[in-house]
Automatic annotation (TrEMBL):
This is Nitrate ABC transporter substrate-binding protein. Keywords: Signal. It comes from Cryptosporangium japonicum. InterPro entries: NMT1/THI5. The keyword Signal applies. The lineage of its organism: Bacteria, Bacillati, Actinomycetota, Actinomycetes, Cryptosporangiales.
Amino acid sequence: MNRNTPRRLAAALLLLALAPALVTACSSDDDTAVSGANTATAAPKGSAQDLSDVCPATVVIQADWEPEAEHSAAYALIGAGYTVDAGKKRVKGPLVSGGVDTGVDVEVRAGGAAIGFQSVTSQMYVDQDILLGLVTTDQAISASGKQPVTAVVAPLNKSPQMLMWDPKTYPDVKTVADLGKKKASIVVSEGTLYAELLVKNGLITKAQLDTSYDGAPARFVGDPKIAQQGFATAEPYIYEKEVRAWGKPVAYQLLADVGYTVYPEPLSVRTGDLAKNAPCLKKLVPILQRAQIDYLGKPDTTNALIVDVVEKYDDGWTYSEGVAKYAAKTMADLKIVANDTSGPLGGMDPARVQETIDTFAPLLTASGGTPKAGLKAADIIDTQFLDKSVTLP
């Protein structure tokens, strides 16, 4: 997932325009809302679920975008009794794992407008309170020269990024390669690396690329001959159920199936702080692994929290219960959440990461980026904290 180019640019522009007014309007104590009461059982002292002696009093997680189900591993940690700071776009509550209070709090912070559309890595280096940030592999590669981060767990195994098209206009198109043969315009955001990858791999031509994607559905609705970027966990539902001017299915292919091999949004730490945070990560990473599995099994509570938080932020981003339910099911059905080839859920295969580095580092360098010279998988991932026994059945 490349949130440096927001998935809904129109929404991003709206949020940016509203940001100064929202900060002013949301600066009072009235904007902190409390939900429920914490009824979780306290973790026994010194147990695997007791984080109080090894982790910060508040585990801060920086998201790369507004609250959504793709971030469910982080939001699933938040127990009842959480507070929502609508001004700063943060939600904080007891860090609960399997009904057990771990003895610390967790705070999940929104990205996007809340951090001025900066990258997560930039924010992590500005704000040392952030323990973990959601940083997709290609972004970690890009930041490796100046703001290195190391991924410690990847709750999502493959990217939900997709290209979608109208199945009525293109009844015989099944893949991105088919779109290339049809010479369809491929509408994406400017600077998307996966678009360059599709050209490099010969699936589409440079002439087909149209980098004017603005996030609004009007273009696709008005010109069903185009293909358009999106997320398999959102847009198919949104276009069929919530965009009244369209109101029918779309067809799509995951870019993960055509070479976009990134791990989307693995939780990452500043590389230089890895050793210092190791005692916390040893306990916290398995909790994050189990949180993602628990979410897939029973997503409703976390989805309700996400929808509630979005409503309280009231910043132009919208996210319905229907989208959240669809996202949870789709992440399971398409194996976006899945056991890694290395074994556990949350794992990261070094060979796959190295392949991603070898693919994207040259593209990033060509576009003016500054990846670390000679970058290796071990520079941006560390799997030592994973519990290899945590797997989906």
